[in-house]
């Protein structure tokens, strides 16, 4: 009898734990501790356009050079004096195969290999234009998004080719972002929507705003939310691409569109500079803070600094649109967010006033002893 | 005839006989002293050995023969060739697996590596590489192969279990030799050609350092002021573990006519202390191995004795092996500031223990594992020179079994690689035309003012039918180009005699073009190449670059490329065959890429009306040009 009571008690306790765990699972990862890198602690410029992670190394592209951060310190700053093509570094791509770092700059493309830069400009090579906003690696191919189209370098043959309004279904050549997805590549085209290219099949597929309306969103989930696409990312787990526009955010899984506006979601702003995504996580880099979407639960979290207190502010928006707020002693360096990169469960955020390191301290998966990678692997 | 006269007549006959015999002996001696009778024109299949490696147990020497497309196996104890393996076209190097059971031979013109069973000497399979594989080594485990691709300017990393190429890492230009470090953590790659820099700047070369664990480029070691990096030797750790890499150090902006002042082309070794930490930088010092008035051109092969006390360097254009006392080399490095050493011509006197004669065109040098013998690979003599190391004396010439007979072409090639025709032996034809190609820099050849009338080096590959010669087009044939002109302006010596000149010209005319890597196997053009071809003809490029004559109209033309340093504006229209192998471009080497010819150096549309072309069109045109 006593034993049956004990069982009932145990079952009850287990039920409580299950409910509690389920409730906690609804709460996404929260970054309550931030470490910022600014000119005060070694950054060459406050404005950070882009960030990329290569193991323990963090690379940041700033308005005044390339920065390498190791062990939470600015380890080295690379400038034009070191051979960098231009001081403005807008994009970084790490070739996992060769270890080379490819950079898009406002003076062409730079490759950092073995500590030395090799530069590629429109004068010296087949690069379409020297104003380059993004660079990406796809096997032996290097893609570069420029103001005069998308350039492709075959590193084995040295062949340059250009994707522009002359050679592809894009009515604007000005390109901002590139996302590699296996044999496919997605391009963010300013005013031209999203362009998909199949490398093997050598065919194009454009995605445009079906209403063609520059100011309004007439058909919310019927296509790309807007043609002014500022960047794009691809989720290798869900096989979706996520396009950032200055008028909202769009996700596409091959069949359905998922569009988000600040008016009907927890998105901080419709002005979005970039997205990054993995697993169920979608991050939107907006001009009013860093927004996170758990795509599965439709839960939002927005991070931004409080201008008055200097502390951090976290706004959690549930699927029912109810909001809760938290205050954190540290915060992002600025609320104008340009890009983001993952480092395990941590994140690195490029802002208009510094590079911010979001240190992961609490998460359900962590309580269970799982890292993000482990959680993904067990998916 | 009288009785008295008979003895006299008899004496006269005897005297005549003696005189006849004396003349005969003199003639015979003369023939011997000049080497051989006049060269034959009958074609011969020469071996042309270029590289060698010892078997792990030191009993065999594997010798790569580039003209014979073979690998020879020499039994060291028996001192004879015991096997011959037919490999691919233009083999350049051999690597021995760590267990000694497998050999890897790079085939430069086949773009692959022959895998040879070291027991049966049978080719087991071939592995695809990048373009123009030359230097080759395995890693310490024997699971990974590193291959330097001379045309692709990269390094193939091949998984030997699957035979698949894992990746290619960018080298610099014309990567040449590869060397696995003693600790197995790095692969060093020497680059024959320097960076494409401004013509006003001294050349800078690169040693590419690969991290074998990550299989990434760990460091690009800059070696200023030099080019033509060759073999790489690593000293034992007890001797400091530094690298020795032979080089050529040109003063290419000085007028070459000042060669009689000395010091225009010097030859030596880079001493490199590899970086210890992954983030550190290697230290580079340069030493010359020339004497003050006696140069040793073509520094090429390099090896350390097992105890590290001596280093051996071959001088491929001086038929010499230098023996360096490493302790004295170290003393020299400490005694003289590093900034001064690259220009000190008194270093050799302090560190070179001995100069040993070799046969024609010594390339590689290898030392037996027991440290008692060294073997020098004599490329144009089909032989090895065996050297007694404790005594540092030449032991013997070891004949690898070539034809023996010297043909006109072979003799011409020997002359091409012989610096003795130049004042103080400063350089041979091959010094500035390594592999019959280019050295990648522009030279002030004949104008007395510093830096004026610089002209880019031009390849000798496939030039037989492209007369006239020289950038100003003044030389109607190769006899003029290579005869009195070279003697007067470049060699500052008596130059070649008529017979030698004929042989040299015959050789130069015989230099073939390598295969074109940008053309598909069936010769079909890609869509971009096809579009570029249309642009080529629409723009009228064929007027000056007609296909029927190697894409040169064989006249001079002013295409607006003269700079403030040039005396004249008309320049010979260059042939375009294998144009992708020849940067820098234009007469003065100012264009570092094909694109720059039109993006930077055609402002008045005199080099074709190209200002109306889009970047897409220019890219297509470039792709077509690469197919020529």
Plain-language structure description:
Chain A has helices at residues 2-26, 364-367, 372-377; strands at 33-37, 48-54, 57-62, 65-70, 73-78, 89-94, 101-105, 108-113, 116-120, 132-138, 141-146, 149-154, 160-163, 175-181, 184-189, 193-198, 203-207, 229-235, 240-245, 248-252, 257-260, 272-278, 281-286, 289-294, 299-305, 312-317, 323-328, 337-343, 346-351, 354-359. Chain A is mainly beta and 379 residues long. Chain A has a domain at 47-294: YVTN repeat-like/Quinoprotein amine dehydrogenase (Methylamine Dehydrogenase, Chain H, 7 Propeller), CATH 2.130.10.10. In chain A, the strands form seven sheets. In chain A, strands 22-23-24-25-26-27 form a six-stranded antiparallel β-sheet, with no helix packed on it. Chain A is globular and about 55 Å long. With 628 residues, chain B is of the alpha+beta class. Helix content of chain B is 18%, strand content 30%. Chain B contains eleven helices and 32 strands. Chain B has a four-stranded antiparallel β-sheet, with no helix packed on it. The longest helix of chain B has 29 residues, at 5-33. At the A-B interface, strand 13 of A face strand 12, strand 16, helix 10 and helix 11 of B.
């Amino acid at each position: 009898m006593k034993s049956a009571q004990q069982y009932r008690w145990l079952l009850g306790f287990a039920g409580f734990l299950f409910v509690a765990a389920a409730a906690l699972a609804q709460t996404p990862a929260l970054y309550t501790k931030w470490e910022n890198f600014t000119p005060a602690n070694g950054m060459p410029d406050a404005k950070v356009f882009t960030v990329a992670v290569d193991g323990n190394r963090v690379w940041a592209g700033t308005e005044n050079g390339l920065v390498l951060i190791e062990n939470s310190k600015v380890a080295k700053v690379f400038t034009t004096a070191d051979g960098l093509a231009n001081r403005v570094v807008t994009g970084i791509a790490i070739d996992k195969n060769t270890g080379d770092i490819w950079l898009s700059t406002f003076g062409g493309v730079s490759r950092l290999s073995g500590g030395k830069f090799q530069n590629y400009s429109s004068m010296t090579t087949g690069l379409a234009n020297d104003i380059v906003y993004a660079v990406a690696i796809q096997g032996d191919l290097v893609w570069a998004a420029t103001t005069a189209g998308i350039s492709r370098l075959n590193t084995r043959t040295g062949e340059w080719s250009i994707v522009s309004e002359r050679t592809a279904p894009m009515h604007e050549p000005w390109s901002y972002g590139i996302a590699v997805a296996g044999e496919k590549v997605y391009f963010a085209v300013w005013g031209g929507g999203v362009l998909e290219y199949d490398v093997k099949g050598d065919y194009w597929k454009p995605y445009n705003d079906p209403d063609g309306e520059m100011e309004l969103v007439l058909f919310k989930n019927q296509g790309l939310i807007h043609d002014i696409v500022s960047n794009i990312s691809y989720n290798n787990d869900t096989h979706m691409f996520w396009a950032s526009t200055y008028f909202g955010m769009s996700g596409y899984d091959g069949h359905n569109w998922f569009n988000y506006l600040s008016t009907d979601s927890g998105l901080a702003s419709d002005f979005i500079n970039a997205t990054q995504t993995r697993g169920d996580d979608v991050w939107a880099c907006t001009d009013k803070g860093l927004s996170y979407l758990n795509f599965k639960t439709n839960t939002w979290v927005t991070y931004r600094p409080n201008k008055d207190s200097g502390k951090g502010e976290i706004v959690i928006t549930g699927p029912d649109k109810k909001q809760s707020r938290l205050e954190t002693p540290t915060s992002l360096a600025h609320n104008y967010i340009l890009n983001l990169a993952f480092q395990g469960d941590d994140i690195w955020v490029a802002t208009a006033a510094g590079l911010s390191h979001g240190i992961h301290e609490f998460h359900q998966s962590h309580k269970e002893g799982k890292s993000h990678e482990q959680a993904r692997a067990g998916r | 005839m009288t009785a008295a006269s008979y003895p006299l007549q008899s004496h006269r006959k005897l005297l005549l006989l003696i005189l006849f015999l004396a003349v005969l002996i003199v003639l015979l001696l003369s023939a011997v002293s000049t080497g051989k009778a006049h060269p034959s024109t009958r074609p011969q299949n020469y071996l042309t050995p270029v590289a060698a490696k010892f078997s792990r147990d030191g009993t065999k020497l594997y010798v790569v023969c580039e003209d014979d497309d073979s690998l020879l196996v020499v039994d060291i104890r028996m001192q004879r060739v015991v096997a011959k393996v037919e490999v691919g076209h233009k083999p350049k190097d051999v690597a021995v697996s760590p267990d000694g059971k497998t050999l890897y031979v790079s085939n430069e013109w086949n773009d692959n590596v022959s895998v040879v069973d070291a027991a049966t000497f049978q080719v087991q399979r071939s592995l695809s590489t990048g373009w123009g594989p030359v230097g080759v080594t395995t890693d310490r485990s024997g699971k990974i192969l590193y291959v330097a691709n001379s045309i692709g300017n990269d390094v193939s990393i091949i998984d030997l279990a699957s035979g698949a190429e894992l990746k290619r890492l960018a080298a610099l230009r014309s990567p040449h030799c590869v060397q696995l470090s003693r600790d197995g953590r790095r692969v060093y790659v020497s680059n024959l050609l320097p960076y494409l820099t401004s013509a006003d700047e001294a050349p800078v070369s690169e040693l590419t350092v690969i991290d074998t664990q990550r299989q990434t480029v760990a460091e690009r070691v800059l070696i200023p002021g030099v080019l033509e990096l060759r073999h790489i030797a690593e000293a034992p750790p007890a001797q400091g573990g530094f690298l020795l890499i032979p080089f050529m150090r040109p003063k290419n902006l000085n007028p070459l006519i000042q060669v009689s002042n000395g010091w225009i082309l010097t030859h030596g070794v880079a001493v490199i202390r590899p970086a210890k930490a992954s983030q550190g930088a290697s230290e580079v010092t340069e030493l010359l191995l020339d004497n003050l008035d006696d140069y040793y051109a073509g520094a090429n092969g390099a090896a350390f004795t097992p105890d590290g006390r001596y280093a051996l360097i071959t001088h491929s254009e001086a038929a010499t092996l230098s023996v360096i006392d490493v302790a004295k080399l170290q003393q020299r490095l400490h005694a003289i500031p590093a900034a001064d050493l690259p220009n000190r011509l008194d270093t050799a006197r302090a560190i070179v223990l001995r100069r040993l004669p070799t046969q024609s065109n010594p390339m590689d040098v290898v030392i037996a594992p027991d440290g008692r013998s060294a073997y020098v690979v004599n490329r144009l003599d089909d032989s090895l020179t065996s050297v007694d190391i404790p005594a540092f004396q030449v032991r013997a010439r070891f004949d690898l079994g070539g034809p023996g007979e010297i043909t006109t072409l072979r003799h011409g090639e020997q002359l091409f690689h012989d610096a003795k025709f130049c004042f103080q032996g400063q350089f041979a034809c091959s010094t500035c035309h390594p592999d019959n190609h280019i050295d990648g820099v522009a030279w002030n050849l004949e104008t007395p003012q510093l830096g004026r009338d610089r002209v880019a080096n031009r390849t000798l590959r496939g030039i037989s039918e492209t007369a006239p010669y020289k950038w100003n087009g003044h030389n109607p044939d190769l006899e003029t180009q290579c005869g009195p002109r070279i003697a007067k302006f470049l060699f500052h010596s008596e130059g070649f005699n008529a017979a030698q000149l004929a042989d040299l010209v015959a050789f130069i005319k015989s230099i073939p073009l390598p295969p074109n890597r940008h053309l598909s196997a069936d010769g079909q053009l890609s869509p971009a190449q096809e579009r570029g071809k249309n642009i080529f003809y629409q723009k009228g490029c064929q007027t000056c670059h007609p296909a029927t004559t190697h894409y040169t109209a064989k006249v001079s033309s002013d295409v607006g490329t003269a700079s403030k340093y040039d005396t004249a504006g008309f320049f010979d229209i260059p042939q375009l065959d294998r144009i992708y192998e020849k940067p820098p471009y234009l007469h003065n080497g100012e264009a570092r890429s094909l694109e720059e010819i039109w993006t930077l150096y055609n402002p008045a549309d005199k080099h074709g009306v190209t200002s109306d072309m889009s970047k897409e069109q220019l890219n297509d045109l470039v792709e077509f040009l690469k197919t020529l």
